[in-house]
Amino acid sequence: MALSDLNGIDVFVATVQAGNFSQAAETRQVTRSAVAKSIARLEARLGTPLFQRTTRSQRLTEAGAIYFEHCLRAMEEIRSGEAALEGGRTQVAGLLRVSMPVLFGHLCVTPILVELVRQHASLSLDLQFSDRPVDLREENVDLAIRVGTLPDSRDLIARPLGEHRMALCASPAYLARQRLPESLEALMALDAVAYSRHGKAMEWRLVVDGQEHLLKPRARVLLDDMQGVLVAAAAGMGVAWLPYWLVRDVLMEGRLQEVFPAASGPVYPIHAVWPKMPHMPLKTRVAVDALLQELPGRLQEVEGRRT
């Protein structure tokens, strides 16, 4: 087989993983026609159809499914070879793709990684902000920052970076019109500014006297953006449950104040996650090392400023 015969395999794998030609084209930032032509050339070379095509979908043929499994293993070997070569380098170089939650990434992670690029002239960054957990292999991501409990995965390696807590808070103007809550019942009777997903308010996890409670806030305002929740709470629209790293400065300035301090929140772990491979790429290693060195101290400083 000539090296040119490998052309199109990556498109084929991307199409199978995406589910259809259109999604594969969007992922690879090419036209649907380009994907279809690449698959057609591959099928012509192999002498067999790889997909059963209808007007609405494409499904793998039996031959396509067998070929896909072999292609996956071949691509894994190629990635391992690249990682092995990169593992022997002494200069940090290449493009590092990092996925992270939107606000936490902007406020806490980006400054660390930007400084890392400043120190290494041959290193470049592609920072991707999303609150959904991305598939690192499918979306070609080198490193992800995850907040919360991690699901079990044999394909990923995780390293703890720190932890954070949540704060119940409201504006002084709103609290001046209300009686400060001294029980969960009184707390839940207050208006809430709630973070939402898919149009539903996220529940609050509170710990009182060592017992955890999962509560649905009485949401007067729903927002699917944490920064928006902060703004609405500071404007006097009700009580909000927010990460302390997000509200610390607003609390220090007095635009918000903590509510019902008897109710603490659970601790949420923060991890760096990357694909499992025989040799960790140098660019990923130095990024994880920088986060390990800088992020825990920043989070501890935030918690230390709680009053």
The gist of it:
It is built from 10 helices and 15 strands.
Describe the structure.
Helices cover 42% and strands 25% of the residues. The protein is an alpha/beta fold and 307 residues long. Strands 7, 8, 9, 12, 13 and 14 form a six-stranded mixed sheet that branches. It has a five-stranded mixed sheet with strand order 4-3-5-15-6. Strands 1-2 form a two-stranded antiparallel ribbon. The model is unreliable at 1-5 (pLDDT under 50).
Based on the model shown, name its key terms.
307 residues, alpha/beta, 6-stranded mixed β-sheet, 5-stranded mixed β-sheet, 10 helices, 42% helix, 25% strand, elongated, disordered N terminus
Number of strands: 15
Helix content: 40-55%
Strand content: 25-35%
Instruction: Measure the end-to-end span.
Output: 68 Å
Main sheet?
6 strands, mixed
Average residue-wise pLDDT: 86
Instruction: Return residue spans where pLDDT drops below 50 for at least 5 consecutive residues.
Output: 1-5
**Shape descriptor:** elongated
- Supply the helix-strand structural class: alpha/beta
Element-level helix/strand string: HHHEEHEHEEEEHHEEEEEHEHEEH
Would you spell out the secondary-structure blueprint of this structure?
Elements: H1 9-18, H2 21-28, H3 32-46, E1 51-53, E2 58-60, H4 62-87, E3 94-100, H5 102-119, E4 123-129, E5 143-147, E6 156-164, E7 166-170, H6 172-176, H7 184-188, E8 192-197, E9 200-201, E10 204-208, E11 211-215, E12 219-223, H8 226-234, E13 239-243, H9 244-253, E14 257-258, E15 268-275, H10 282-304
Parallel strand pairs: 3-4, 3-5, 8-12, 8-13
Antiparallel strand pairs: 1-2, 5-15, 6-15, 7-13, 7-14, 8-9, 10-11
Helix pairs in contact: 1-2, 1-3, 1-4, 2-3, 5-10
